[in-house]
């Protein structure tokens, strides 16, 4: 049996080794997604995996590492466990892992995607699934024990949250939308089954979070139409703007016992619910940066478009941001662009088959570019600047 002195020495050694990690091994992380906050820690997704760190910031540690993607990690009410949507076995289901790390337990088993939403106050898991919605174009809300078992559907006709949104645009790629798919915040009474729209505007209101008699939520209803945190008083009906980010939208807000955590400009921000002051959270990751190493990638599953050459001898493909030509029968496959860090989109043949045109963002905005079909130096034809581009004809 080890003595108390030797155990203390071992702990000091472990701490010393951790402190001695080279600065080059640490990543000043950006593009963090799906954060959540407990009384003491923050969880988030980076590089498709779930990480956790102290609430004040610092070095994070990874909790999951399957080949698939994880999303929406959420702390249990006591902060001891984290539930999240993950893909360990070829399908997106809800999993639970100890907040300090350990074995992952699968909770849902439906062949459709199950999206983690939140824990209920009594420790059950609330998730969204289209498993019984017929055409599967909308989710319904379900609860299930954190230890597994049969799920129970809530008596809400369709939705994402409670307070809830009947539809969700959190992951859509286009901004400032105003139309019929813009979500509103609704209150739903699980006893009387009464529903009430509390936001009712043409703006996008989403991610509602209860704190006492206040509902915090994200909305782009301000004058600059950027997603910010707003607050609604359930008793008073008053609506007010809390944060005022003018350059970036906030994203993926989640509430804890004392704070709301969210993303803004690629960084994590913490909103204190008493003072409503916002402070950035520094995040450091220790990583071998394996995804940045040069490697060969099979792009057969990433084909976005195709076009047959005028002679019918070759086919043009866009895959993973590069442009390829492939022989109809015999010959070699050519990667015409081979541009790491540059995306080429919407390739098209010239009528005589000698040239290939495509949009390239080498200048950080998509410009029409021309290259010989057999390979060679590209030529930029436009200087359009900002804007969305369509397939050249």
Characterize the structure shown.
4% of the residues lie in helices and 40% in strands. It contains 1 helix and 32 strands. It has one helix at residues 4-19; strands at 26-28, 33-37, 41-46, 49-54, 58-62, 71-75, 81-86, 93-98, 105-106, 114-119, 125-129, 140-144, 152-153, 186-188, 195-197, 205-211, 214-219, 228-233, 239-241, 250-255, 259-264, 267-272, 278-281, 283-286, 303-308, 314-319, 322-327, 334-335, 344-349, 355-360, 367-372, 379-380. The longest helix has 16 residues, at 4-19. The chain starts with a helix and ends in a 13-residue tail after the last strand. Residues 1-21 have low confidence and may be disordered.
What is the strand and helix layout of this fold?
Elements: H1 4-19, E1 26-28, E2 33-37, E3 41-46, E4 49-54, E5 58-62, E6 71-75, E7 81-86, E8 93-98, E9 105-106, E10 114-119, E11 125-129, E12 140-144, E13 152-153, E14 186-188, E15 195-197, E16 205-211, E17 214-219, E18 228-233, E19 239-241, E20 250-255, E21 259-264, E22 267-272, E23 278-281, E24 283-286, E25 303-308, E26 314-319, E27 322-327, E28 334-335, E29 344-349, E30 355-360, E31 367-372, E32 379-380
Parallel strand pairs: 5-24
Antiparallel strand pairs: 1-24, 2-3, 3-4, 4-5, 6-7, 7-8, 8-9, 10-11, 11-12, 12-13, 14-15, 16-17, 17-18, 18-19, 20-21, 21-22, 22-23, 25-26, 26-27, 27-28, 29-30, 30-31, 31-32
């Amino acid at each position: 049996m080890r003595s108390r002195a030797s155990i203390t020495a071992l702990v000091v050694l472990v701490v010393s080794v951790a402190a001695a990690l080279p600065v080059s091994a640490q990543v000043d992380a950006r593009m963090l997604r799906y954060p959540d906050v407990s009384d003491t820690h923050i969880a988030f997704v980076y590089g498709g995996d779930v990480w956790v760190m102290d609430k004040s910031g610092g070095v994070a540690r990874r909790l999951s590492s399957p080949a698939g993607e994880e999303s929406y990690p959420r702390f249990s009410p006591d902060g001891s466990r984290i539930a999240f949507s993950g893909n360990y076995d070829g399908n997106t289901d809800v999993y639970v892992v100890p907040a300090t790390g350990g074995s992952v337990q699968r909770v849902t088993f439906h062949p459709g995607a199950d999206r983690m939403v939140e824990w209920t106050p009594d420790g059950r898991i609330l998730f969204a699934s289209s498993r019984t919605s017929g055409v599967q174009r909308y989710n319904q809300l379900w609860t299930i024990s954190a230890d597994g078992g049969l799920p129970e559907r809530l008596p809400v006709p369709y939705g994402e949250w409670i307070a809830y949104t009947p539809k969700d645009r959190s992951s859509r790629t286009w901004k400032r939308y105003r139309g019929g798919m813009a979500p509103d915040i609704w209150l739903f009474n699980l006893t009387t089954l009464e529903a009430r729209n509390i936001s009712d505007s043409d703006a996008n209101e989403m991610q509602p979070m209860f704190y006492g008699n206040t509902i915090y939520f994200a909305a782009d209803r301000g004058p600059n139409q950027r997603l910010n945190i707003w607050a609604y008083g359930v008793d008073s009906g008053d609506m007010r703007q809390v944060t005022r980010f003018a350059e970036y939208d906030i994203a993926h807000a989640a509430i804890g016992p004392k704070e709301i955590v969210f993303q803004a400009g690629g960084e994590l921000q913490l909103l204190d619910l008493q003072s409503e002051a916002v402070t950035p959270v520094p995040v450091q990751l220790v990583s071998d940066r394996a995804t940045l190493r040069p490697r060969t990638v099979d792009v057969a599953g990433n084909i976005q478009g195709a076009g047959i050459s005028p002679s019918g001898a070759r086919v043009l493909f866009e895959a993973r941001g590069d442009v390829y030509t492939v022989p109809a029968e015999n010959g070699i496959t050519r990667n015409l662009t081979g541009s790491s860090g540059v995306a080429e989109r919407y390739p098209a043949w010239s009528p005589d088959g000698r040239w290939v045109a495509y949009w390239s963002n080498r200048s950080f905005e998509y410009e029409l570019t021309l290259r010989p079909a057999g390979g060679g130096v590209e030529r930029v034809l436009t200087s359009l600047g900002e804007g969305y581009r369509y397939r050249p004809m």
